[in-house]
Write a structure and sequence with these properties.
Distance between the termini: 27 Å
Structural class: alpha/beta
Number of strands: 10
CATH topology: Rossmann fold
CATH superfamily: P-loop containing nucleotide triphosphate hydrolases
Radius of gyration: 18 Å
CATH architecture: 3-Layer(aba) Sandwich
Helix content: 25-40%
Number of domains: 1
Shape: globular
């Protein structure tokens, strides 16, 4: 396993947000974290990245503990984070956004840039457009692209489909299926349709605890689990938004 969390607990102020998060992430796969709003999904990603450091437990990258390290050190170890707010520079062009992320990287960054533009053809067509002039979906592609050109081994992506039109969600799903061949992906996603289309392993979190982890067919067999923790109706098979 490339990434492991063991009994992670995280406080924000006096409040314990993560109570006991334990799961493992296999290399070269898309692992999806699911759960209702406020379950602790985003805090889990922020804890891995060192932005909201755990107060207890262990986080291991390639078997070595990284919890407590500053975010920039964790980033240098090959962990990238794409927050849900689509972090791009609005005043810079698409090309400038990507090349700024490549600064200080080796020559292979050019190969990764080519890969990013192949994965996201929408960006290739808009290299000279300012980041602020992109649609929400295109900004999300650019944010992910900026992380990919840095040659991250693990990519943490927080709710990439939020607010996107269905056609952009489909494009994002296709891209994520390609990206996993280059980078291990840990995805927090509310849209169960997207999650089920790209995920290979799933972790359900509720109230700061890991409730269940496994593959999709195992989760789908437990209808009570889907109803209780994801808000998906077992009566009609409806797959709603699992915030």
């Amino acid at each position: 396993m490339i990434l492991e969390l063991k009994q992670v607990k995280t406080h924000i102020g006096q409040f314990r947000i993560l109570q006991d998060i334990t799961f493992a992430v296999p290399e070269g796969k898309v692992t999806v974290i699911l759960g209702r709003n406020g379950a602790g999904k985003t805090t889990t990603l922020r804890s891995i990245m060192g932005l909201t450091p755990p107060t207890e437990g262990e986080i291991l990258l390639d078997g070595k503990r990284i919890e407590g390290l500053p975010p920039h050190v964790i980033a240098r170890k090959g962990v990238g984070f794409v927050p849900e707010d689509q972090a791009v520079f609005s005043a810079l062009t698409v090309n400038e956004n990507l090349r700024l992320a490549m600064r200080g990287r080796d020559q292979s960054a050019e190969e990764r840039l080519t890969f990013v533009l192949d994965v996201f053809p929408d960006l290739k067509e808009k290299l000279s457009r300012k980041g602020g002039g992109l649609s929400g979906g295109q900004k999300q592609m650019l944010a992910i692209g900026r992380a990919l050109v840095r040659d991250n081994r693990v990519l943490l992506v927080d709710e990439p489909s939020k607010g996107l039109a269905p056609i952009m969600v489909e494009k994002l799903a296709r891209a994520l299926r390609v990206i996993k061949d280059q980078t291990t992906v840990v995805l927090v996603e509310q849209n169960f349709a997207l999650a089920s289309a790209v995920g290979e392993r799933y972790v359900i979190i509720d109230d700061g605890h890991t409730v269940r982890e496994g593959i999709l067919c195992e989760l789908e067999q437990d209808r009570e689990l889907l109803r209780r923790y994801l808000g998906i109706s077992p009566a009609n098979g409806e797959r709603g938004r699992a915030g």
